[in-house]
Amino acid sequence: xxxxxxxxxxxxxxxxxxxxxxxxxxxxxxxxxxxxxxxxxxxxxxxxxxxxxxxxxxxxxxxxxxxxxxxxxxxxxxxxxxxxxxxxxxxxxxxxxxxx
Length: 100
Description:
The chain is mainly alpha-helical. The protein contains five helices and no strands.
């Protein structure tokens, strides 16, 4: 079950916690995506340099597959990696469409 979240609140909490909330958010939303049929690596990958890039790519790949998103996956990944607040807003807005 996907929980509806305000994307602005997610961004503000992420900034206030120096990014720690983003890791929590990726864990929680990753679990929600798994319930929808996604195959996402364990969240501890996000804490290991190198594997964190792999984790984020796999997370976005599954999000992209489940939501049949029309934008190019690589573009979404680049936005998420370099402009994370915008990427978070993008992903959370799409997740909210599946919220119950």
